[in-house]
Amino acid sequence: MEEEEGLSFEEFRLRVLQDYRLAWLSRQLSILGRKEVLNGRAKFGIFGDGKEIAQLALARQFREGDWRSGYYRDQTWMLAAGIITPEDFFHQLYGNTNPELQTGNGGVSFNNHFSTPNIHPDGSWRDLTSQKNSSADISPTAGQMPRLLGLAYTSKLFREIREWQTYTSLSRQGNEVAFGTIGDASTSEGHFWETLNAAGVLQVPMALTVFDDGYGISVPRSSQTTKGNISEVLKGFERDDDQTGIVIFRGKGWDYPGLCRMYEEGIRLCREEHVPVLFHVDEMTQPLGHSTSGSHERYKSKERLRWEEEHDPIPKMRAWILAKGLADDRELTTLEEEAAEEARQARRKAWKDFQQPILELRDSLIRIIDNRSCMCRHDHVDKVGIITDRLKRIPSTVRKDVFSAARQILRWVCADCPMRESLQRDLVQWIEENTHDAWRRYNAHLYNETPTSVLQVEPLPPDFDEESEKVPGRMILRDNFDRLLEQYPLLTIFGEDVGRIGGVNQALEGLQKKYGHWRVTDTGIREATIVGQGIGMALRGLRPIAEIQYFDYLLYALQTISDDLATTTYRTRGTMIAPLIIRTRGHRLEGIWHSGSPLSMVINSIRGVYVCVPRDMTRAAGFYNTLLAGQDPALVIEPLNGYRIRERRPANLGVYRIPLGVPEVLNEGNDLTLVTYGSCVRIASEAVERLEEFGISVELIDVQTLIPFDLPGIILESLKKTSRILFFDEDVPGGATAYMMQKVLEEQAGWQWLDSQPRTLTAREHRPAYGTDGDYFSNPNAEDVFDTVYEMMHEADPEKFPDLF
Ligand SMILES: Cc1ncc(C[n+]2csc(CCOP(=O)(O)OP(=O)(O)O)c2C)c(N)n1
Ligand SMILES: [Mg+2]
User: Fold this and answer.
1) What angle do CA 121, 123, 125 make, to 5 degrees?
2) How many angstroms does the Cα of residue 218 sit away from the middle of ligand 2?
3) From the CA of 190, how far away is ligand 2's center (Å)?
4) Fewest CB atoms within 10 Å of the CB: 63, 295, 455, 680?
5) Calpha distance 3→7 (Å, rounded)
6) Does 168 contact ligand 1 (Cβ within 6 A)?
7) Is the pLDDT of residue 623 over 80?
8) Nearest bound ligand to CA 44?
9) pTM for this one?
10) CA dist., res. 65 & res. 174, Å (int)
11) In this structure, which residue's CA is closest to atom 21 in ligand 1?
């Protein structure tokens, strides 16, 4: 440590003192932050106390271009890296939603959830090599792990793929390290093991620190980890002389010089050799306890609490500075006082920033009421005055208080007063003017709202000419992927069996050979980290298509898609995008784990990710073309039985673009609207033909995408004509059909046009059974469609359509 290269003693001394001051500042923020929750100004707080010193040592190695995927303890690191200021710390704590103030989480996440933007407001990419990058944190323990793999893997690709070296604003020859942090208890999660294993296999520059404070809230290490020691258990992963593996370092959370040395050596190795490294930082403490939700005295013994006090890293660092003669007590006390004052000032300023606009809003409302020239009395009580007075007295006002008061006051404006009209008008105007602003603070940016939104992509229909021959669907996909790999140099496709054999259905046949194994790549069987790999790559500006072999197995990755991918744009207030395309296949196979249509599983858990349900491969290819022309995350479910079915090959493969959210009317009809998607379209078509033989004219609509859903209102127009509607799919009852029904009947107000009871036709509540008969009896079939439609027509006109049964 003392021999730090290129530094004079004085420079070295000042650096150490700067670190010490930052440690102190960070601790003061934690202490003040806790108070702000206890006094009611903030709702919840989780802090980085006890982890300060290790993070300062870590931050020294964190450079421009590097990436972070960490967790809520990383406050000191983020301060040291300049990613947050002390004021930002409080902005997060109060939940400030002002986009002008850099909070990194838009005010929609807990405090100490950090992020840095990866795009400009116009949707273009930032220069990611000239900033220190933090992917956006999520709260689920170990949820940061899958994405960490992708952040590290991207560096690997940039080093390996020579042609990519021109993308200098995304990477400098892959020299960027992906830093991760995780708590000791969270290493019990599967994501931790899956990520670590994949990183070892792939040999990526991932530098993961386990902050070991011995507890996961109240549960001690001995109940979390085999042998109670994570680096001990990981020994089998450890790199030895002639093998790939992970290099493991160990440090003590209070040992400043030791930690500085450890990180310097470990990160150099990671950066230069692209070997994953794991730092097990043990003997850490948690002076303020886990979070503001409780106190650790409830579960830590007196001995443990005493040990923690003795091993508090800040006094330990202080003692080391004194022992080394780097400063005397007076100098350190001055630093401490300065840091404490800086923390207090930051709190004062941030509270003002938080309160001022709300108080202005409150006063603008109060002015309307106070200026009224009469009292609104109900049973001799001035309700309006009472609500207003109550609002004036609230000590820490939030927007809810003001809006709630405004909306209640509106109810009590008296009906017979001559002033009513103007007061009511002013109030309504106030509510209308301010609601939009407040609403947007919490309900925007679920999807990319910049010009690079997929919804802005110009559609282009597939071209069919005389020569358009009929080929198996898989060939349309394959030739389309071929064009896409050609057109988009940063496109990579990866997943189980994707590379060497070109996918289980051969839709990538020959493409690894043509584009190399970094662009079309096999992975291990590890769905969560396949998706995480894709998220990390997408965050760093690549165009990944991650393949999940079968739709049913998306469940393994659902947590990552739901908690991480789907919320990326929302939780960063549109400053960060992860345009990952997930490719999978489903519908109409057989058996419990190959039924392939649990659509409600996804549509209700991954809002924030578009969901495409193409009926054939021409449509599927068209969606990939559209998605790559924009920048949004999406899931595409290819119809499993469509790979062999012949379709006409479009002449403009790789170019035509099918718009998202636009249903297609496949058969025009007058009696009933039949709404479906995916493989059910084929079944529905068959039933529609049979129904025609009985004089029933069905309008068949393929919704094409479930999210977004029917943006132009095509289904409503159909319903206006037919007055009857049936929603059909092979999900469970109350699943995606109920979703479609809600969209059409409630959102599009289709209920007004109904002449019959709206119906759904679905699979059963259990999982579909094996074999042709299992499929026939547990999934809906063409006879079921026929019978349901016929029954609806019978109810409408029993004479024309007599009972069949
Ligand atoms: C999946 C999930 N389960 C439970 C929680 C609640 N929780 C938050 S932090 C935590 C303990 C984590 O302990 P550790 O990983 O050791 O980190 P530390 O807080 O000690 O730094 C738990 C159980 C959560 N956030 N996510
Ligand atoms: Mg812990």
Assistant:
1) 105
2) 9
3) 17
4) 295
5) 8
6) no
7) yes
8) 1
9) 0.97
10) 9
11) 183
